[in-house]
């Protein structure tokens, strides 16, 4: 069974500080993709960052980096230099390569609030 | 580059009615997926279409059906609406090769918020 766990329902961070959002996953598929999305109150899911299961290096995209620990099945998102506009819901997602319907499995999300 | 657009943005229906939601894919994307997001939850996969054929389906009953058109736009149809169908419906497109999404991000629209009374 495929499963994504986000254990932090809500997080607070001071503006300009770094924050780590946790994500663990469970899959028996050796090949998969890990993704993080941001969902502001407007509802749109905004793609942030991707990590392939065979990628040796952690992915980075601007202020976002993914701390990928394959043996622990964790894919934590690190946001550096937080900004007020970072306040939103954040979802971790996984898509296994084996034919499971070509779907993304999402966690329940973490609500991030950036404090001025 | 035009992103994913969905219509309508909000919709109110009565239990038992039918509804059609529409989606225009991002330019160049041949794969479209639909997700249901209940309040306080992560999105749940409904189905995916690749080149006009259903290419994967989640755990949703047959009253959820879809279409993809030659221009890669798409529709989600829900028959016999139930109160639990109230949710945000998200359409996402990608350029995934043969619809394989494991190494290709989904690009989402703003969603349609459906309320069933």
As a percent range, the share of strand residues of chain A is: over 45%
Approximately how much beta-strand content do the residues of chain B carry?
A: over 45%
- What is the end-to-end distance of chain A? 41 Å
Indicate the radius of gyration of chain A in whole angstroms.
Answer: 14 Å
Give the helix/strand layout.
The complex is a heterodimer of chains A (116) and B (117).
Chain A: E1 3-5, E2 10-14, E3 19-21, E4 24-26, E5 32-39, E6 46-52, E7 60-61, E8 64-69, E9 74-79, E10 88-96, E11 105-106, E12 110-115
Parallel strand pairs in A: 2-12
Antiparallel strand pairs in A: 1-4, 3-9, 5-6, 5-10, 7-8, 8-9, 10-11, 10-12
Chain B: E1 5-7, E2 10-13, E3 19-24, E4 31-37, E5 44-50, E6 53-57, E7 64-68, E8 74-78, E9 87-94, E10 107-108, E11 112-116
Parallel strand pairs in B: 2-11
Antiparallel strand pairs in B: 1-3, 3-8, 4-5, 4-9, 5-6, 7-8, 9-10, 9-11
Structure description:
The complex is a heterodimer of chains A (116) and B (117). Chain A has 116 residues and is mainly β. Chain A has strands spanning 3-5, 10-14, 19-21, 24-26, 32-39, 46-52, 60-61, 64-69, 74-79, 88-96, 105-106, 110-115. In chain A, the strands form three sheets. In chain A, strands 2, 5, 6, 10, 11 and 12 form a six-stranded mixed sheet that branches. Chain A has a four-stranded antiparallel sheet with strand order 3-9-8-7, with no helix packed on it. In chain A, strands 1-4 form a two-stranded antiparallel ribbon. In chain A, strand 5 (32-39) and strand 6 form a beta hairpin. Chain B has 117 residues and is an all-beta fold. Helix content of chain B is 0%, strand content 49%. Chains A and B meet through strand 5, strand 6, strand 10 and strand 11 of A and strand 4, strand 5, strand 6, strand 9 and strand 10 of B.
């Amino acid at each position: 069974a495929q499963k994504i766990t986000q254990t932090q329902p809500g997080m607070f961070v001071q503006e300009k500080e770094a924050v780590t959002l946790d994500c663990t996953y469970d899959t028996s598929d050796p090949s998969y993709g890990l993704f993080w999305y941001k969902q502001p109150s407007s509802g749109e899911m905004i793609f942030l960052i991707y990590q392939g299961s065979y990628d040796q290096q952690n992915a980075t995209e601007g202020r976002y980096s993914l701390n990928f620990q394959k043996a622990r099945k964790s894919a934590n998102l690190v946001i550096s230099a937080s900004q007020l506009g970072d306040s939103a819901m954040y979802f971790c997602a996984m898509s296994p390569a084996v034919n499971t319907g070509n779907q993304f499995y999402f966690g329940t999300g973490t609500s991030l609030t950036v404090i001025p | 580059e035009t992103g994913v657009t969905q219509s309508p943005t909000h919709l109110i229906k009565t239990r038992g009615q039918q509804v059609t939601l529409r989606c225009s894919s991002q330019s160049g994307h041949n794969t479209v997926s639909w997700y249901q997001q209940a309040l306080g939850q992560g999105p749940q996969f409904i189905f995916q279409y690749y080149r006009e054929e259903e290419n994967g389906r989640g755990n949703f009953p047959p009253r959820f059906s879809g279409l993809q058109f030659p221009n890669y736009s798409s529709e989600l149809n829900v028959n016999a609406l139930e109160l639990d169908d109230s949710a945000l419906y998200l359409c996402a497109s990608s350029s995934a090769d043969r619809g394989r999404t494991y190494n290709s991000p989904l690009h989402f629209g703003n969603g349609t918020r459906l309320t069933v009374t």
